[in-house]
Amino acid sequence: MLSTAGLLALVGAVPALGQAPPVSVPAEPLNIVVLGDSLGEGVWSSLYWRFYSTREVKVINAAKAATGFNRTPYEEQLGLAGGQTAQLAVMMTGANDAQNAWPLQEGGAIGVFGTPGWAPLYRRRMDRFFDAAEARGTTVIWIGMPVMRDPGFERRMAVVRAAQREACAARGVTYLDLMPASVDETGAYTHIKKDDKGRIRAFRGDDGVHLTIYGSEWVAEIVLFTLLEQKPAWMDAARERLFRAALG
Predict the structure, then answer these.
(1) N- to C-terminal Cα distance for the chain?
(2) Which residues are within 8 A (CB) of 79 and not within 5 positions of it... i.e. 6 or more apart?
(3) How far apart are CA 25 and CA 22, in angstroms?
(4) Strand order, beta sheet including 57-63
(5) pLDDT tens readout for residues 47-81
């Protein structure tokens, strides 16, 4: 994987990486729910295996292929079994969103993609999710879409990416920008990256859209390093130790 400095340079954050002292485990498990489309599923898998050996962190998969904020009510997936609450929601979606957005109320106007009405409706759908997360006291980390290989698809993704970034900024939600990591030194799409040992690794899938296993692992590291830097209210000393252990 990339070095710590290399990872965090891409999200503009540099956490304190001093060794955490031994502490007791948290009294209650930390619930992390991962939402989104098929790209989100890859990030869930990477986070799940990093915490597989501990009972103190549960990583729950609520991501599903072929979903998107243009029509999927993701806020309904914040409620966990047994009335539990997720302290953290990790969202990665957008690959299916370059199409019409459904109205929030029955009978409302559809937001036609490519028209001025699309982005405001899309952002309102995001706001509904943020409202639900805020009401539950759930921290949200939003992972932006990487650059796409097909130029036409990338032009459409740029519209989606801008709407997501603006909505996150308006609500103070952390937005992790993957664009710098998904282009080469000329700014063109690239499917490979060098890891911290200098090896060339495939970062993107053959379709030019999805992430490889390595790519999802790389994104999961960015998420964990960002949380260690930000230290949300639920990040006590015991949980910090677990997150550092998950980074290896």
Answers:
(1) 11
(2) none
(3) 9
(4) 57-63, 30-36, 88-92, 139-143, 174-176
(5) 999 999 999 999 999 999 999 999 999 999 999 98
3-state secondary structure of 61: strand
Write down the architecture of domain 4-13+26-246 according to CATH: 3-Layer(aba) Sandwich (3.40)
Residue 202 contacts residue 212 (beta carbons within 8 Å): yes
Say which amino acid occupies 194.
Answer: K
Cα–Cα distance, 54 to 66 (Å, whole number) = 31
Q: 81: buried, middle or exposed (CB in 10 Å: 19+, 13-18, 0-12)?
A: exposed
CA distance 76 to 45: 21
The reported pTM is: 0.89
The number of residues making up the chain comes to 248
What residue spans define the domains of the chain?
A: 4-13+26-246
| Distance between CA atoms of residues 18 and 16, nearest Å | 6
CA 248/CA 245 separation, integer angstroms:
5
